[in-house]
């Protein structure tokens, strides 16, 4: 399967991609732990079936020092002992924020309370933005039929130039 469209080869698409990346850069530079960022991005990407983003966040997590065991267990985080309570709260928010159409209430009060317990306001701002941005990125990847498998960590740093 070939990608349907190269967003970066188009003037408008390139502007959109660069601005999207710049929002992601603000999140990346926040106090939200890098490992949490990658786990949340990976989980939302798994739910959305975006192979391109699963490839990116699996490899970026590994490059950031995340263990293969934890990366492999993200899809089954509720049934794994390797995630902290804070990470579990972030993963629950990622799932509920990704599956908005599946839940009549969106993000539950219980999940929100768990997030508030473990993260400060700046981290919450980054976490909420992260869930929104990874879902947008997943839609780009799936709609454009971008395939996973060939990503190299650090590839997107060129978008800031």
From TrEMBL:
GO molecular function, one term: peroxiredoxin activity
Source domain of life: Bacteria
Domain Carboxymuconolactone decarboxylase-like as annotated: residue spans: 27-96
Name of this chain's protein: Carboxymuconolactone decarboxylase family protein
């Amino acid at each position: 399967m070939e990608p349907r469209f190269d967003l970066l080869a188009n003037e408008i698409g390139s502007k959109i991609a660069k601005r999207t990346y710049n929002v992601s850069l603000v999140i990346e530079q926040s106090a939200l732990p890098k490992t949490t960022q990658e786990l949340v991005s990976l989980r939302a990407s798994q739910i959305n079936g975006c192979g391109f983003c699963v490839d990116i966040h699996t490899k970026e997590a590994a490059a950031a020092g995340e263990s293969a065991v934890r990366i492999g267990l993200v899809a089954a985080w509720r049934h794994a002992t390797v995630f902290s309570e804070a990470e579990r709260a972030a993963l629950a928010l990622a799932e509920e924020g990704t599956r908005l159409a599946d839940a009549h209430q969106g993000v539950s009060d219980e999940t929100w309370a768990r997030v508030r317990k473990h993260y400060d306001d700046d981290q919450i701002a980054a976490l909420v933005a992260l869930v929104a941005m990874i879902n947008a990125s997943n839609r780009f990847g799936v709609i454009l039929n971008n395939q996973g498998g060939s990503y190299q960590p650090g590839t997107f740093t060129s978008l800031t130039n």
